[in-house]
Amino acid sequence: MDFRKPTIPELFPHAIHQDLTAKQAVQYVNYTFDQIAQYNITKDIPHELIIEDSNSPFIIDSKPEQFYFGTYLKNHWRMITFSIILGGIIIYAYQQSIDKKRQKKFA
Length: 107
What we know:
Blueprint: H1 8-11, H2 13-42, H3 65-106
């Protein structure tokens, strides 16, 4: 009796599910940012010039939107934290240079 080789999703279902969830989260956050940008671009344009995009399929998604943002933050927390720390260091260094210039000016 010959048995077939199991596929990768059959061998590692949890890892495949996590990878799919991460990809869905990134896709949702990118889509949200795209919609916000498109709204900000088109909010001052007259309504006669706006062409509505009606070719999108009707999809019912049972997952709440917070799940996608939570997953996005869970998967990218290191980069977000690094960016916040680096931004804080840059702002602190800038403030220090401004303070030194003021002290030299008044001294």
